[in-house]
Amino acid sequence: MPKAPFVRNPSSWELSEREVTNESHHRNRREIIKSLGLAAGTSLLTIPNAKTNAATAGFPTKLNKKYLPAKGIKPTEYKYITGYNNFYEFTTDKYEVRFRANLGWKTEPWTIDVGGHVEKPLKLDVNDLVKDVGIEQRVYRFRCVEAWSMVIPWDGFQLNKLIAKAKPTSKAKYVMFSTFKDEKTALGFKAYPNYDWPYTEGLRMDEAMHDLTFLATGIFGKPIPHQNGAPIRLVVPWKYGYKSIKSIVRIDFTDKQPKTLWNTAGPNEYGFYSNVNPEVDHPRWSQARERAIGSGGFVDRIPTLKFNGYEKDVAHLYKGMDLRKFF
């Protein structure tokens, strides 16, 4: 397909047209911009239909054209992104979670505590943080360890912007993330007591500092719905989805590799690194292919890409490591 005059040469991690699932309201670059409310000649869009009581509501998203896909790219439809996902704190049912997560659970106000090996421990209101750092939109592949995938236009900011505020010391080798634990409104805590709650995840410092590592506060220009990890979640696009912890309440900088919920629950099935790798199967299923979710729900399986398609950008982080051992 010939390129329009304004389309630049894409970076190695960007999506090609054939790799993206359908979104009926976002058929091409022009329609994406139009449907998001982006006026000609401006880089700001206004969040449409945002609830006034939602964290991050009312903040404009700055459209980063560096991350805008080429003409013809179609993200997964909003109804699938928000209607099929995992959030065990509420339920293991991927369809039911959108209802369970909206029965009395409050995400406004919301604060994040930042501590550990840092010069400046912080207690941040999410709205104040967003106002300070600003929001941009990026379209990333999302690959679940269960071998299904989406393409999601996230709104948010690079994690390294928050890290810069905390000023980690030389002792900080890892970053640990923790989510909420509210047994009154999230019934999964009592329903699944064998998990080591609250949900925790971790990254090595160089992974956390990478420009692709993102803190998302919205989807399609709207605040993140509860079921997708409101009001702020991690997005690490080259790793399996469970690494992208939802509803973060605490970030700690540590000198030791932190424990994580899934690695603790099944260390032989869920590694600490959890990089997408079609060559390393899950003990109970193949990771060579994935079910891309599109306008018809699950579509034919497509090949899974190493590091979820971001190999040229992140493979150097693991130079010399046996990726079959450090999965």
Mind explaining what this structure looks like?
By secondary structure, the chain is α+β, with helices and mostly antiparallel strands. The chain has nine helices and 14 strands. The strands form two sheets. Strands 1, 2, 5, 6, 9, 10, 11, 13 and 14 form a nine-stranded mixed beta sheet that branches. A hairpin with a 2-residue loop joins β9 and β10. It is globular and about 40 Å long. 43% of the residues are buried.
- Under CATH at level 1, the class stands as Alpha Beta
Average pLDDT metric: 84
| CATH topological fold name | Sulfite Oxidase, Chain A, domain 2
* Tally of separate domains: 1
Distance between the termini: 37 Å
For the report, how would you describe the main beta sheet?
9 strands, mixed
Residue windows where pLDDT falls under 50 for at least 5 positions? 1-52
How many β strands by DSSP? Answer: 14
Secondary structure blueprint with pairings:
Blueprint lengths: L28 H7 L8 E2 L15 E3 L14 H4 L15 H4 L10 E6 L5 E4 H8 L1 E9 L4 E11 H8 L7 E6 L8 H4 L8 E5 H5 L4 E6 L2 E2 L9 E3 L12 E7 L6 H5 L23 E6 L2 E7 L7 H4 L13
Parallel strand pairs: 2-5, 3-12, 6-13
Antiparallel strand pairs: 1-2, 3-4, 5-6, 6-9, 7-8, 7-12, 9-10, 9-11, 13-14
Label this structure with key terms:
about 325 residues; alpha+beta; Sulfite Oxidase, Chain A, domain 2; nine-stranded mixed β-sheet; 14 strands; globular; disordered N terminus
Short account of what is shown:
The chain is an alpha+beta fold and 327 residues long. Helices cover 15% and strands 24% of the residues.
